[in-house]
Design brief:
The protein folds into two domains: 150 residues, Spore Coat Polysaccharide Biosynthesis Protein SpsA, Chain A; 215 residues, Alpha-Beta Complex (Spore Coat Polysaccharide Biosynthesis Protein SpsA, Chain A). It starts with a strand and ends in an 8-residue tail after the last helix. The protein has 14 helices and 20 strands. By secondary structure, the chain is of the alpha/beta class.
């Protein structure tokens, strides 16, 4: 296994820890330009052997590299504290097998095309998040069963990563533009204002969706990301779960919560949820939900049922807020293609299986859900594809 340490300012503690592993280390200076790190990855990919990356401020354990070498998974990583996560798993300490390189020979070329708003293609700052995104889109998932390593820099030294905020709202959108403005406005109108909204449009064919989302980004707290999956990619996974995982990897809030683009929040939803989480020290909270017809006529309420140790089938995804730490612990959403109707229930099972309980937000509903004849759920019930073609 080729072990590579890209550096611009190598920490002595990093070198000392690596010396104790017994592995030969290839130290590579990447200070020549913003794309030098990309060039290192490109060269390693072209060589086509198993290789590990340990960044300049990571303190490995004596057995970290041996654990990587013995792992059969194509992509594995050790976790470390970074940003608001206690168990981040990125390029800081990672290993890629030759079989992954052979299966995706053009991956680093794909990486070169990713153009983030704050940086051009190949910029070192974007590689971590972009590479994780691309691997996820190719249906590879990291094995993080390799313990925890130290990290000397919990926050980046540059200014392009936003400072922490309390709540990340992840919104998935696919057409249904007639509901979208209400959904976005319901976040903007929250009495609790320390949030960021990421709107993820999964290739809507309704052109008004892109117009509404672009207009929404006039609020600096709102980001819009459009995806254009092929029909094969749509069929390969439960897309909304795939997007939630992507969104979580590209945001930094202490809490994560969800909203479908055809539903909406009550104005005090975030305030009540954060207050309940903080006052009860709960990692997962949920609220009651108002049920509406496609035309907005109220038909009932999905009430809270006290503290839940099993929430699948009882709690809608629009009604949950949880910590980023809990999300990281369960490795995010399951997104197998058989889970189009039930991915949220399987995610709730992951949380409860990990020992988390769902703590109720008492009182009035926190959100409202439209039941549309063309929703994913109804299309699946009728035996149709989950998305309109």
């Amino acid at each position: 296994m080729h072990v590579i340490v890209p550096y611009t300012n190598l920490r002595s503690a990093t070198r000392t820890a690596l010396d104790q592993t017994g592995y030969p280390i290839d130290y590579v200076n990447v200070s020549d330009g913003d794309d030098s790190y990309w060039g290192l990855l490109d060269e390693a990919w072209r060589v086509g052997v198993d290789f590990a990356i340990v960044e300049q401020d990571i303190i490995v354990e004596p057995d970290t590299l041996a654990s990587f070498e013995g792992c059969p998974q194509p992509w594995c990583a050790a976790t470390y504290p970074y940003l608001t996560s206690d168990s981040y798993r990125g390029l800081g300490c990672v290993r890629f097998r030759a079989e992954l390189v052979a299966a995706l020979p053009g991956l680093i070329d794909e990486l070169a095309l990713v153009d983030y708003p704050n940086h051009g293609p190949k910029h070192w700052c974007t590689l971590d998040a972009a590479l994780q995104r691309l691997l996820g889109l190719h249906h590879y998932h990291v094995c993080a069963d390799h313990g925890r390593v130290g990290h000397l820099s919990h926050w980046p030294s540059h200014n392009c990563v936003p400072h922490p905020y309390q709540v990340t709202v992840l919104m998935t959108v696919y057409n249904a533009s007639e509901y979208l403005q209400q959904a976005i406005q319901s976040v903007v109108d929250q009495t609790f204002q320390d949030w960021r909204l990421l709107i993820m449009d999964d290739g809507s064919t309704d052109p008004y969706v892109q117009t509404l989302c672009s207009e929404a980004t006039r609020d600096p707290r709102i980001t819009y990301q459009r995806f254009d999956p092929s029909e094969e990619e749509r069929a390969a996974s439960a897309r909304y779960a795939t997007l939630f995982n992507w969104g979580a990897a590209h945001t930094y809030g202490k809490y994560i919560t969800y909203l479908c683009g055809d539903d909406f929040y009550e104005p005090n939803r975030l305030a009540r949820m954060v207050q309940t989480a903080e006052q009860t020290d709960a990692a997962v909270v949920y609220g009651a939900q108002r049920l509406l017809t496609a035309d907005g006529v109220e038909t009932g309420c999905r009430a809270t049922r006290g503290v839940l140790t099993a929430a699948a089938g009882l709690v809608d995804l629009n009604s949950v807020l949880h910590t980023r730490t809990s999300f990281d612990k369960v490795r995010g959403w399951p997104d197998a293609n058989r889970l189009w109707r039930t991915a949220d229930g399987h995610m709730w099972d992951r949380l409860t299986d990990a020992g988390y309980v769902f703590t109720p937000v008492e009182g009035e509903p926190t959100d409202s859900k439209h039941y549309r004849p063309d929703s994913v759920d109804q299309r699946c019930i009728r035996g149709e594809t989950p998305w309109a073609v």
